[in-house]
């Protein structure tokens, strides 16, 4: 059950939808103007770089993961994304299958113009499976695609500062049991009560059917209104589902958004259905559906625009 203040806030959003449809339409059309939002070629190049063999599959605690971590930090610096704390890194340790791992979350902060003490966390994970039997698991879709989208959000915020403060979270150790996001919510630098919602992106770059699923609205009518009021970009089909109500696999606990859900924080998880290269060494950049991917990022940004407008 959601915390009382979030229930009140999100119910209030529903009322506002009926009163401000014209303004919402204008905001939506602006959100789909990609040329003023982010560099599409840079979006693709980041995925290509992070999923290249030189990052060796980005497995937590390895040289490749450290290289990915530094790449993200460098991009945050270039995009003027301040650290959430003293520095961008949030280090943590854990044990998995009898082995001790040292992980690092990378956390950026954009201060809100109207509600600086209320936060929307936009997340993706940068780790993947590393090297197995001499083969590199590059994880282009899983989840270099989500990390690159974080950079596009940062570009957007340079021209369109958000009303709510935003945390851009690149989580580590998702593949080892959501360890990075779990550490974040258990050792939060800010009060969890001040986090309004988590937008999580994990595998958003491939779909032969042009389908982008969003999970998290089943028990949250206000988030459902936001999605239903959103206009997908290009040929993207934005579909509510994979939430236990449609006879499809339930994704509620499938990625880092689960860590927020267990703390009663509302979430929206954006992802595509599993493809043949999921968790295979063939999840490479050349398999990315480039036009679909660009439209997906535009679509998710447009959802954020509406959310940022009406969350109070």
Describe the 3D structure.
- This protein is an alpha/beta fold.
- It has a single domain (4-310), classed as Zn peptidases (Aminopeptidase), CATH 3.40.630.10.
- It contains 9 helices and 11 strands.
- It has helices spanning 4-19, 21-31, 40-50, 63-78, 140-159, 179-186, 221-228, 257-261, 290-310, and strands spanning 82-83, 89-96, 99-110, 115-125, 130-132, 135-137, 164-171, 195-201, 211-215, 237-240, 267-271.
- Helix 1 (4-19) packs parallel to helix 7.
SSE layout and pairing:
Layout: H1 4-19, H2 21-31, H3 40-50, H4 63-78, E1 82-83, E2 89-96, E3 99-110, E4 115-125, E5 130-132, E6 135-137, H5 140-159, E7 164-171, H6 179-186, E8 195-201, E9 211-215, H7 221-228, E10 237-240, H8 257-261, E11 267-271, H9 290-310
Parallel strand pairs: 4-7, 4-8, 8-11, 9-10
Antiparallel strand pairs: 1-3, 2-3, 3-7, 5-6, 9-11
Features:
9 helices, Aminopeptidase, two-stranded antiparallel sheet, 312 residues, nine-stranded mixed sheet, disordered N terminus, alpha/beta, single chain
How much helicity do the residues have?
A: 25-40%
**At the fourth CATH level, what is the homologous superfamily?**
Zn peptidases
Task: Report the CATH architecture.
Answer: 3-Layer(aba) Sandwich
Order of helices and strands: HHHHEEEEEEHEHEEHEHEH
Largest sheet: 9 strands, mixed
Number of domains: 1
Strand fraction equals: 15-25%
The quaternary organization reads as: single chain
Q: Which blocks of ≥5 consecutive residues have pLDDT under 50?
A: 1-9, 11-23
Q: How would you classify the helix and strand content by structural class?
A: alpha/beta
Per CATH, the class reads Alpha Beta
Q: Give the mean pLDDT.
A: 91
- Assign the CATH topology: Aminopeptidase
The shape is: globular
Number of helices: 9
Rg over C-alpha atoms, rounded to the nearest angstrom? 18 Å
Q: Can you count the beta strands? A: 11
């Amino acid at each position: 059950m959601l915390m009382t203040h979030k229930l009140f806030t999100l119910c209030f959003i529903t009322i506002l939808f009926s009163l401000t449809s014209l303004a919402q339409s204008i905001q939506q059309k602006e959100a789909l103007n990609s040329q003023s939002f982010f560099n599409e070629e840079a979006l693709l190049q980041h995925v290509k770089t992070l999923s290249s063999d030189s990052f060796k599959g980005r497995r937590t605690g390895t040289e490749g993961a450290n290289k990915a971590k530094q790449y993200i930090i460098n991009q945050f610096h270039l995009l003027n994304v301040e650290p959430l704390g003293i520095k961008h890194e949030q280090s943590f340790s854990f044990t998995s299958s009898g082995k001790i791992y040292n992980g690092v979350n990378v956390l950026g902060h954009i201060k809100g113009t109207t509600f600086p003490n209320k936060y929307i966390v936009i997340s993706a994970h940068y780790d993947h499976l590393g090297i197995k039997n001499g083969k590199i698991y590059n994880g282009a879709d899983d989840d270099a695609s989500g990390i690159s989208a974080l950079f596009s959000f940062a570009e957007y915020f340079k021209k369109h500062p958000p009303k709510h403060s935003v945390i851009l979270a690149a989580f580590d150790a998702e593949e080892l049991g959501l360890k990075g996001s779990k550490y974040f919510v258990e050792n939060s630098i800010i009060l969890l009560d001040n986090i309004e919602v988590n937008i999580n992106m994990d595998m958003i770059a491939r779909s032969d059917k042009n389908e982008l699923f969003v999970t998290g609205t089943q028990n949250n009518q206000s988030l459902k209104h936001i999605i239903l009021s959103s206009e997908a970009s290009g040929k993207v089909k934005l579909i509510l589902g994979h939430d236990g109500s449609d006879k499809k696999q339930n994704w509620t606990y499938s990625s880092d958004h689960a860590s927020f859900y267990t703390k009663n924080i509302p979430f929206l998880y954006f992802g595509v259905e599993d493809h043949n290269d999921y968790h295979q060494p063939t999840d490479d950049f050349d398999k990315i559906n480039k036009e679909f991917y660009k439209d997906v990022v535009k679509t998710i940004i447009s959802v954020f625009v509406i959310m940022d407008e009406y969350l109070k």
